Amino acid sequence: MRVFITGGTGLIGSAVVAELLGNGHTVVALARSDASARAASAVGAEPIRGGLADLDVLRAGAAHADGVIHLAFANDFSSPEALANAVAEESAALATLGEALVGSDRPFVACSGTPAVPGRASTEADPILTDGPVGGRGRAVTGVLDLASRGVRSSAVRLPRTVHNEGTGGFAGVLTGIARQSGVSGYPGDGTQRWPAVHALDAAVLFRLALEQAEAGTSWHAVDDEGDRVRDIAAVIGRRLGLPVESVPVQTYGPLGVIFAADQPSSSTHTRQALGWEPKHPSLLEDLENIQP
């Protein structure tokens, strides 16, 4: 299958590209810089220059592919305005990719986040969040799933709050970065809130399985660790960096503060049973031991 992918040189995307190439697919990767184009070429993918805002490039990439995987996001959480702009850019990109696939019965795999459900671990049957700081992403992915009624084999892989590899990535990586800057390995509230996690290499397998097998309009959970306490995550970060571990104000995390403070465990039982997905790589707490002081 010839697969067009956005975000193919990031932490998750590079793992997905390797997984696709290793299983007989060819990959065309959107590359927004010369460096990204070189990285894509180096692993055997065909780069196509452009970013999420280049809608004509996206349209052409999808039109000439047998399937599409979307992973790119600006990841600018510096202010509410910057985050809103990133969400708007991604929403337009998803709409463009989807329209290019209408009536083709080709697969379109988008990514989103696992939802938070009060009092229990969320499942694949729970609706994605469509309000709050990143609610726009949820609305855009819902639009992708709705394409199932228009001849697109659309699906969504819901990623947990931390997708990690070699001690970096995701919200745990944000905690590490703030700890390095502030001199404190912090956590919001009492730190008992739980975050789900998955290794990037395991998540990559699920993206491939969704591309190959998922029925139209379905959602899947790329979750290995159902929920690690944020206080425990901060404790490993603090120990690795030689820093004190303590509670810090929610405002420390800017527009993500509300999300960071929420208890949000998640289950992947249905995903494992239906698609035969089984994570094999280190858990988050194990992987954080790779943080370098």
Walkthrough of the structure:
α1 packs across α7, α3 runs parallel beside α4 and α4 packs parallel to α5. The chain starts with a strand and ends in a 6-residue tail after the last helix. The strands form three sheets. It has a seven-stranded parallel β-sheet with strand order 3-2-1-4-5-6-10, sandwiched between helices. The mean pLDDT is 95. By secondary structure, it is of the alpha/beta class. It folds into two domains: 190 residues, Rossmann fold; 85 residues, Alpha-Beta Complex (UDP-galactose 4-epimerase, domain 1). α2 links the parallel β2 and β3. The chain has eleven helices and twelve strands. The longest helix is centred in the N-terminal third of the chain and has 22 residues.
Summarize this structure briefly.
With 293 residues, the chain is α/β, with parallel strands linked by helices. The protein folds into two domains: 2-162 and 197-225, 3-Layer(aba) Sandwich (Rossmann fold), CATH 3.40.50.720; 166-196 and 226-271 and 283-290, UDP-galactose 4-epimerase, domain 1 (Alpha-Beta Complex).
Could you list some keywords that capture this structure?
globular, 41% helix, seven-stranded parallel β-sheet, UDP-galactose 4-epimerase, domain 1, alpha/beta, 2 domains, 293 residues, three-stranded mixed β-sheet, Rossmann fold
Shape: globular
Give the biggest beta sheet.
Answer: 7 strands, parallel
What is the CATH superfamily of the largest domain? NAD(P)-binding Rossmann-like Domain
Low-confidence segments:
none
Output the number of helix runs: 11
The CATH topology annotation of the largest domain reads as: Rossmann fold
Terminal CA distance reads 42 Å
In the CATH hierarchy, the architecture of the largest domain is 3-Layer(aba) Sandwich
Q: What is the residue-mean pLDDT, rounded to a whole number? A: 95
Strand order of the largest sheet: 3-2-1-4-5-6-10
Structural class: alpha/beta
* Series of secondary-structure elements, N-terminal to C-terminal: EHEHEHEHEHEEHEEHEEHEHHH
Tell me the name of the CATH class of the largest domain.
Alpha Beta
Query: Total number of β-strand segments?
Result: 12
Domain NAD-dependent epimerase/dehydratase: 3-218
GO molecular function, one term: aldehyde dehydrogenase (NAD+) activity
Pfam family, one: Epimerase
InterPro entries: Epimerase_deHydtase, NAD(P)-bd_dom_sf, NAD(P)-dependent_oxidoreduct
